[in-house]
Amino acid sequence: MTTAQQQPEPTETVIFVSSHDAGTSTVINSQLGQVHFVKPPKENHGQFLGLGSVVVDGVEYVEASAVTGNLLRSQVALAVSNRMRLPHGAKLIFVIAVDKSTGKLQASHVDTVGVVLSAFHDARVQFGVVVNKIPAGVSHVKLYQEVMDTIKTETCSPIPHVIMCPLVPDLEEATDQLSKTAFAEVACLMKETPTTHLEPLDDIADDVVIDPATSSLPRIVMAIGNPGSGKSTLINGAAQSIVTQAGSSAGHGIQHDKLLKFEINGTTWIDTPGLSDVKYRTRAAGQITDALKDQEGLYRLIFVVTTESGRVKPDDLATLTIVLNAIRKKNVPYGVIINKISERLLQKMLTEAEFYDKLICSLNSGPYSTNHIFLAPEDQDARDADNCIIPASAMTPVLNFIETVPCIAIRPTDVEAIKTSDFDDQEAKLKDLVEMMITAHSKQLEQIVIMHESAMAQHRETLRMLQADQARRDEMTNGMLESLRTQAAEESQRRDKIQERLEEIMAKANRGQLEARQAHMKTMLEMEKARSEARERELKMKLEAERKRLEMEKAHQKEMHDTKAAHDKETNRLENMIKDVEKEVNRPRDSCIVM
Ligand SMILES: Nc1nc2c(ncn2[C@@H]2O[C@H](COP(=O)(O)OP(=O)(O)OP(=O)(O)O)[C@@H](O)[C@H]2O)c(=O)[nH]1
Ligand SMILES: [Mg+2]
């Protein structure tokens, strides 16, 4: 997973928050058109390793997913609210999946929304909601109503933008998938969801907070807290070896005259004694003052506190107050590890967000407040143990948290002696202040709940009106459909009749045509017959004429023949006569010679 620091500067940030298995990675990947976010490995379940992000086209997509359990929810809530305090703000979108078996919103997903929203206290945050994995047949109106009824919307104004995304069976099976079509509406939701700008909680001047990467000053993590809160165990956990004595009998850490400082992975860790024990208070105060004055450095001040009745103990708050009072700088950043949170308190926070609110409210009731808070559940192995080393895997989240706490450059001259005389006074004052703040906060919450309920009632009324309007429209549409259906049926009947009539006309027309055709044929035949008869007659006449002509020809020929025969006979006779004459002429004559 890429981190925001390695990426181009975004102009817009959209944070997607969801519980385990809500399908958020798929939703974001589908917007990106590529698989960027993948499911975290199983061994990281239950840990918060920071928000995943990617910047594409100037938009930073941030994912806080697989959030299970209230502890993780609280850590995510703080990280999300911090991200929304950046100058360009952020858009917040929750992804809530639908339970396949009940067709309702997954209760744990709704819890995540509640816890994250509670981190904004009374800021008015507008957000979007993706109702995801909706099985076919589940009413979207009912789901919308459920979103309105169940998620803690007192901080939202006016109402969240909600979109519905269906369950895509193909994606169900795949591990890291995307779909361009199933989540098309998410792009609109991202556009429509307004950007929220949260005021930075700590108005820290730029010259105070220093980026450790750009400073050559030594890095120092100072663990401060009352006896037994777990400072030494924290340092041993960071070193993964026993560098400082820890345990119920280790005793106040003040038996040592020298400063307890240890080099761990390039950072100096300082173990300090607590101030709550009046017997050792002056000496402990001296040691903490010495630690702060020891050298100029980049300090991360980490207060390790514990709880009592679901609140941070007043003596822890007093310690925190008088130590910070001793640093002559404004807006000193610091982190708080609320340590050894019991399983029971965790359960209460899990079921009622109010417990979480009370805890944070008690911590920030005094003159100083922070949003760098880490909730650390009680470690069963470490309870009352001596020199217990918390496993590295369990240390990762807390060490990551410490890395996120801003550094402050402190010179020895910036520090004055810690005033132990103030301790009891501060403790008593802070005890009252915590009570007062919690009561005020509860009242504020009650008012918000009342406002929320009235807003919800209004939303419900609006929804009811919308539904009634929809029902009216449906009725009208059904009426129109019915009338159209009747009209269509009538039209169809009319068409059938016209068709029938047309067929009749056609049939008639066909008959008439046939008759006319027959008559025409008859006339033609008759005409043809007459023509043929006339022709026959004409031919007969021609034949007769020809016959006559032939007869005449024959007669003529015969006549010619006869004439020729007579002629030939005459010719013969004449020739014979000529021959006789010639014979007579040519006969020799003795007696008579004619001269
Ligand atoms: N259950 C539980 N016990 C813890 C935890 N961290 C520390 N402890 C126990 O709390 C006791 C006191 O722990 P230390 O680390 O010595 O506390 P410290 O703040 O250094 O105390 P001092 O040095 O006396 O000021 C030890 O028995 C630890 O094992 C935790 O997270 N859970
Ligand atoms: Mg100690």
From TrEMBL:
Residues 221-340 form the G domain. It comes from the Eukaryota. Residues 553-574 are annotated as: Disordered. InterPro entries: GTP-bd (IPR006073), P-loop_NTPase (IPR027417). Pfam families: MMR_HSR1 (PF01926). One of its GO terms (molecular function) is GTP binding. This is G domain-containing protein.
